[in-house]
Design a protein that fits this description.
Number of helices: 9
Number of domains: 2
Order of helices and strands: HHHHHHHHEEH
Distance between the termini: 63 Å
Strand content: under 5%
Strand order of the largest sheet: 1-2
Helix content: 40-55%
Shape: elongated
Number of strands: 2
Largest sheet: 2 strands, antiparallel
Radius of gyration: 24 Å
């Protein structure tokens, strides 16, 4: 096969085969390394003979996007975490699905996915999805409606996903306050006078 043929084979077939498993289970590092070594050997190999090709680049470099000098092959570890994070995001946003009901009843009955804990004796599927929670949490942002469910401190509801610190002693009396307390629900506007009376000009 030509290099172009091998590239198509790797991207369309070899790296697609484990996609379903990767959306449910966190693959062990040794297994991921073994898969990547086989793909790497196929990429640098010499046709059907048994000779190993000379590896001119590390696999990590080949996994970089073509615009930055790589070949655009998937980093399987990152892809695995992304697929699991997608499942976690479904738990967070599609609470009416049957699978969400099952996992919620078992692992996070009193919170959402982002607020969940690993709990006692979890299944490997839950441990796998839970391992991607940090990715979901880092990428999640509140969309402000009434503000009833949004904590005023610590959650990313400000511009660019920023949040007000929970460790600032000035904000300590507001730890249990919700964002709705600073919004006029009838006018759908901030209570500007209240905000300016409580905070310095920059925070306001």
């Amino acid at each position: 096969m030509s290099k172009v043929g091998r590239e198509v084979m790797i991207k369309s077939v070899l790296q697609s085969i484990p996609s379903y498993i990767m959306s449910i289970f966190l693959l062990p590092n040794k297994l991921v390394d073994a898969i990547e070594k086989m793909i790497n050997a196929f990429w640098w190999g010499h046709g059907g003979n048994m000779r190993r090709g000379l590896h001119w680049m590390f696999w990590e470099r080949l996994s970089v996007h073509k615009n930055f000098g790589g070949m655009g092959f998937k980093d399987l570890t990152s892809f695995n975490v992304a697929m699991l994070g997608k499942q976690g995001w479904r738990f967070q946003t599609d609470s009416n699905s049957l699978v969400c009901w099952l996992f919620k009843a078992r692992y996070f009955p009193n919170s959402d996915f982002i607020g969940s804990k690993i709990r006692h004796n979890p299944s490997y599927v839950w441990r796998s999805i839970f391992s991607a929670k940090i990715v979901v949490k880092q990428g999640a942002r509140w969309r402000i409606g009434s503000g009833v469910n949004i904590p005023f401190l610590g959650d990313p509801w400000l511009k660019d996903g920023l949040s007000l610190s929970t460790t600032n002693p000035i904000f300590e009396p507001l730890l249990q306050v919700k964002l709705c307390d600073f919004i006029d629900q009838d006018l759908k506007m901030w209570k500007a006078s209240l905000i300016c009376s409580l905070f310095d000009a920059q925070t306001a």
